């Protein structure tokens, strides 16, 4: 996790005062259930140790002023009154969108100076944007005393607000998985989320206790058309559900029902969703059964999911396929692409002693193809978004910034 010290220093250098608090929101990886969330299905993500830290202070005017360590030199100022979709673009649209969505939900949004830092790589399919939304939501709720950051019901509402920012302000038609993982994840657990009822279950998930390990491999590839393809997949799923006469693909549990779809593309899309929902429940069952070592079976399910995403849903990309192949050949228990697809990261499940051979095999596969070297990250199921201890409180540190 990026510490509060650097972001407090950024805050001081850009805003010239002391922050009221520091908040953290993690990125996420997803163990199972891809493109199932917007089909009202199941997902099993977990919060990462990496994420966004934000140092913030309230302002007495109605302005949100933002800076980011990842965007040196840029200071974005947003007027809160009259804020509407389309007015802010680029990275600042995510925090501005959260201010807009909170206000639309009837919350009093205070003016604020916010300094942001991140150790979750952007574009790696690890939900750095959802982390930015969730950190901003906690900042604004915390500064206004809206009390949304406490109990689970408040967190669920914040997740919905952060998603609304992404859907309706930024214009990305994503589901609820990423914001839920960031706001509801728990250390040593994966979050089983039923995206129809929004019911959540914390599933114990501690691979290290069984001598296993999760490797997160950022393929550093980002292919064109990402946003458009995501929307197209979503539309295909909705069309398949309409043709089958169900409100969403979640209502189908038997792939045999898909025979009624005459379009082979729609049938494959729906087959991925139905089988991935089943894989989520199987993995959750394996993790909770307590009988024997669940990881070889989970590894096989991961690889099945990758093949389904590659062949049925068609959202994989060459670097992910090569990563999965190399990891399996070097002894991984299983591996798959995670996130929306067309770029980003692969999650590999390995025995402790296979971690180094798998890394070397993946790095070698990239070098042979003259691709940019992949980045290897730790993926430890971690705690959700929270306020961090502040090194200097406003009282100790003197006047507040920007007020
Ligand atoms: C992105 C979206 C999520 C989810 C995944 C695919 O991460 O933000 O809502 O749809 O893609 O599972």
Structure in words:
By secondary structure, the protein is of the alpha+beta class. 40% of the residues lie in helices and 23% in strands. It is built from 11 helices and 12 strands. The chain has helices at residues 4-15, 93-104, 128-144, 152-170, 177-184, 226-244, 264-289, 295-312, 318-329, 355-368, 394-397; strands at residues 21-32, 42-59, 63-68, 75-79, 111-118, 189-194, 200-204, 212-222, 334-337, 343-351, 375-378, 386-388. Strands 1, 2, 3, 4, 5, 6, 7 and 12 form an 8-stranded mixed sheet that branches. A 4-stranded antiparallel sheet has the order 9-10-8-11. Helix 7 packs antiparallel against helix 8. The radius of gyration is 21 Å and the shape is globular. Residues 392-403 have low confidence and may be disordered. The site of alpha-D-galactopyranose has 10 residues, from helix 5.
Task: Lay out the secondary structure.
Layout: H1 4-15, E1 21-32, E2 42-59, E3 63-68, E4 75-79, H2 93-104, E5 111-118, H3 128-144, H4 152-170, H5 177-184, E6 189-194, E7 200-204, E8 212-222, H6 226-244, H7 264-289, H8 295-312, H9 318-329, E9 334-337, E10 343-351, H10 355-368, E11 375-378, E12 386-388, H11 394-397
The structure holds alpha-D-galactopyranose (GLA).
Alpha-D-galactopyranose binds at residues 34-35, 37-38, 174-175, 177-178, 339-340.
Topology, number of strands: 12
Q: Which range does the strand content fall in?
A: 15-25%
List low-pLDDT spans.
392-403
SS field, number of helical segments: 11
Element-level helix/strand string: HEEEEHEHHHEEEHHHHEEHEEH
Helix content: 25-40%
Reported for the largest beta sheet, the result is: 8 strands, mixed
**Spatial shape:** globular
Distance between the termini: 29 Å
Radius of gyration: 21 Å
Structural class: alpha+beta
Task: Catalogue the ligands.
Answer: alpha-D-galactopyranose
Give the overall average pLDDT.
93
């Amino acid at each position: 996790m990026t510490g509060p010290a650097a972001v407090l220093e950024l805050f001081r250098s850009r805003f010239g005062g002391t922050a009221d608090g520091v908040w953290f929101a993690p990125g996420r990886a997803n163990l199972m259930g891809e493109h199932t969330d917007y089909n009202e299905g199941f997902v099993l993500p977990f919060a990462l140790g990496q994420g966004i830290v934000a140092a913030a202070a309230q302002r007495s005017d109605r302005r949100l002023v933002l800076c980011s360590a990842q965007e040196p030199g840029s200071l974005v100022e947003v007027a809160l009154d009259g804020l509407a979709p389309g007015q802010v673009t680029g990275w600042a649209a995510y925090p501005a969108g959260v201010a807009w969505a909170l206000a639309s939900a009837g919350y009093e949004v205070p003016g604020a100076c916010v300094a942001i830092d991140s150790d979750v790589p952007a574009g790696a399919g690890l939900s750095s944007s959802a982390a930015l939304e969730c950190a901003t939501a906690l900042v604004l709720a915390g500064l206004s005393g809206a009390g949304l950051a406490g109990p689970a019901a408040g967190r669920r509402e914040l997740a919905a607000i952060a998603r609304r920012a992404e859907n309706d302000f930024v214009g990305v038609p994503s589901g609820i998985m990423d914001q839920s993982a960031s706001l509801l994840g728990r250390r040593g657990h994966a979050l089983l989320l039923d995206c129809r009822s929004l019911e959540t279950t914390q599933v114990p998930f501690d691979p290290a206790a069984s001598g296993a390990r999760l490797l997160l491999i950022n393929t550093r590839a980002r292919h064109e058309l990402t946003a458009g393809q995501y929307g197209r997949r979503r539309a295909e799923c909705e069309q398949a559900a309409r043709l089958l006469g169900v409100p969403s693909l979640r209502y189908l549990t038997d792939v045999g029902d898909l025979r009624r779809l005459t379009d082979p593309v729609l049938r494959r899309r729906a087959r991925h969703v139905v089988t991935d929902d089943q894989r989520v429940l199987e993995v959750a069952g394996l993790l909770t059964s307590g009988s024997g070592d669940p990881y070889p079976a989970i590894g096989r399910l991961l690889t099945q999911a990758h093949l389904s995403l590659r062949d049925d849903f068609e959202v994989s990309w060459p670097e992910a396929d090569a990563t999965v192949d190399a990891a399996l050949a070097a002894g991984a228990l299983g591996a798959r692409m995670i996130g929306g697809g067309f770029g980003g990261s692969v999650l590999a499940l390995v025995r402790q002693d296979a971690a180094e051979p798998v890394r070397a095999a993946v790095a070698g596969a990239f070098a042979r193809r003259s691709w940019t070297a992949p980045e290897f990250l730790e993926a430890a199921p971690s705690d959700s978004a929270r306020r961090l201890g502040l090194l200097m409180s406003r009282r100790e540190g003197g006047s507040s910034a920007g007020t």
